[in-house]
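Lab intake sheet, docking and co-folding queue.

SAMPLE TYPE: protein with bound small molecule
LIGAND NAME: adenosine-5'-triphosphate
LIGAND FORMAT: SMILES
REQUESTED OUTPUT: full 3D complex as structure tokens
PRIORITY: normal
SUBMITTED BY: R.K., bench team

The fields below were copied directly from the construct record.
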Amino acid sequence: MLRNKLGLKDPEKLEEAEFSITATEISALDEDPVPGNFDLEHLQAIHKRLFDQLYDWAGELRTVDLVKDGTQFAHVAHLSRAATDVFAQLRQDKWLKNLDEGAFLDGFTHYYSEVNILHPFREGNGRVQRAFFTLLAKYSGYHVAWDRMNQEDNIQASIAAYRGNEEPLAEILCPLLEWIDKDYFYFKRVDSHRFTTDRTMHNWPK
Ligand SMILES: Nc1ncnc2c1ncn2[C@@H]1O[C@H](COP(=O)(O)OP(=O)(O)OP(=O)(O)O)[C@@H](O)[C@H]1O
Ligand SMILES: [Mg+2]
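RESULT FIELD (auto-filled):
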């Protein structure tokens, strides 16, 4: 179990405290987003915001290797370099600005997977990447309805992406993206090249 600023020694208590503190911080992000340039420092600043009350190392890159269910996340020795490369590429891709829906989805999926494969932090990578990609999506006029994402599906699709097939992840992320610039409609993929818009999402539970 992780040493924490609250002095909690019971893993269940820590998990509860972590959940409630980060949930509060995450819901405050809408009104008060973490400023940044969609780079590694930005991701670290988001981690710091979410986890500062809990861990001394909030916002710092991990110093141990991490493996989950066969996924070997970036080796510590290469982590900072690999992260710099991912964010340099994202910058070159103009942070996915001004793309059509299909290209946006592909890019969004790709970088979501790349950042996940980095797994820069000892704990909290999922929450931090969702917060980061919420902002990145907003920059292009999309809202991401993460509450509709099934975690088990996300993990399976993240494993497939790690193994080189990003398609299942795109399938999962696509219905979470809602276009907010115009009339707040939901866009839905017919196949990998065609999209329809669907206003029925207005009737979806909020
Ligand atoms: N086997 C795996 N292969 C690839 N990615 C995985 C795997 N298992 C989990 N993930 C990804 O890692 C994230 C969880 O990472 P971590 O536990 O550091 O973050 P968290 O914020 O504590 O978790 P959560 O996303 O459940 O809130 C998941 O959201 C998923 O995106
Ligand atoms: Mg976790």
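REVIEWER NOTE: The beta strands are 67-68, 71-72, 142-144, 177-179, 185-189, 195-198.
SIGN-OFF: pending second check by T.M.
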